[in-house]
Design brief:
Layout lengths: L1 E3 L4 E6 L12 E5 L10 H20 L4 H13 L20 E7 L4 E7 L5 H11 L4 E3 H10 L13 H21 L21 E6 L5 E7 L20 E4 L3 E6 L2 H7 L1 H10 L4 H15 L8 H17 L1
Parallel strand pairs: 1-3, 5-6
Antiparallel strand pairs: 2-10, 3-7, 4-5, 4-8, 7-8, 9-10
Organism: Callosobruchus maculatus (Southern cowpea weevil)
GO molecular function, one term: beta-aspartyl-peptidase activity
Subunit structure: Heterodimer of an alpha and beta chain produced by autocleavage.
Length: 320
């Protein structure tokens, strides 16, 4: 079992470590999302991740499949307000929860959903897309209609909106307003950030697993990015960006700056580097470094804005 989170996080599980073993040891890895995590929220993150990885590993210990393990692990985080998925999802500009999720098997079967509302476990709905339809992704009202057809229960509108998500959106809007008020005084365009540092962004969650039969699975779930425009589709729901799995190579789940990840199809890029001989660590570093070098203006911080966000983040800390 492994538990970790950071500034840019991905899980890359390689089949190479098991190739010459007489018996494959089941493994599940989880990540609880990258982002600006207030110090006081770190303990609840770790507690939630421990619960998540235990749920997944319990499935594997009992002889269950990697798919069941990944789903079980992610569902725990979707139920936990500490994570940006399910109940803990960040909000769009209208103050609503819109969620994305995806899952992929080593045989290249895949399912995904995007812009889902009022569904407690988007990862389970993504699995149903994979298992019950000839398609890969459903979005918006179509995804919710499919959920109803499959008997997936819905939760009351607004019940997935957490107190911390509401506060984070308020912080985001105040910072945005402050930025608009001050931008007109900036004469040097190089001082203007291309990306506002977002205090409510606490990252996507995900898991990868390999079971006793050598089956690999990757899954990812998210509420997106704090203050996103209504209808925004994240990298999490894009097979090849947020999630990718190839049974001959490995499995990857990513979290970080989603729109950047989507532009380079990060998960698939890592798998291809692994296929060409790199270890999971080498492939991940190579692809992330390349992504950063090509898109290095997507996460620029501006001192004045950072100070403003820090003050609001401290206020969030004292209210939680």
């Amino acid at each position: 079992m492994c538990i970790k989170f950071g500034l840019l996080m991905l899980l890359a599980c390689s089949v190479g470590v098991c190739t010459f073993a007489t018996k494959i040891e089941p493994i599940v890895l989880v990540h609880g999302g990258a982002g600006d995590i207030p110090n006081m929220r770190v303990p609840v993150k770790f507690a939630g991740m421990k619960k998540s990885v235990k749920a997944g590993f319990d499935v594997l210990k009992a002889g269950g499949s990697a798919l069941d393990a990944v789903e079980a692990a992610i569902k725990v985080m979707e139920d936990d307000e500490a994570f940006n998925a399910g109940f803990g999802s960040v909000l769009n500009t209208d103050g609503e929860v819109e969620m994305d999720a995806s899952v992929m098997l080593g045989n290249l079967s895949a399912g995904a959903v995007s812009i889902v509302r009022d569904i407690a476990h988007p990862i389970s709905l993504a699995r149903l897309v994979m298992e019950k339809t000839p398609h890969v992704m459903f979005a918006g009202s179509g995804a919710n209609r499919f959920a109803k057809e499959q008997g997936v229960p819905t939760v009351p509108p607004g019940s997935l909106v957490s107190p911390s998500a509401k506060f984070s959106l308020d912080v985001f809007k105040r910072v945005q307003a402050w930025r608009m008020e001050t931008d007109h005084t900036i004469t040097n365009s190089s001082d203007t950030p291309t990306e506002v540092k977002n205090p409510g962004d606490v990252g996507t969650v995900g898991a990868v697993a390999i079971d006793a039969n050598g089956n690999l699975v990757a899954g990812t779930s998210t509420g997106g990015t704090n203050g996103k425009m209504v209808g925004r589709v994240s990298d999490t729901s894009m097979i090849g960006s947020g999630t990718y799995c190839d049974g001959d190579v490995g499995a990857v789940s990513t979290t970080g700056h989603g729109d950047t990840i989507a532009k380079v199809c990060l998960a698939h890029s890592i798998i291809k580097e692994m296929e060409h001989g790199k270890s999971a660590q080498e492939a991940a570093k190579h692809c992330i470094d390349k992504m950063t070098s090509r898109l290095n203006h997507t996460a620029v911080e501006w001192d004045g804005l950072t100070k403003k966000v820090t003050r609001y983040s401290q206020e969030l800390n004292t209210t939680k």
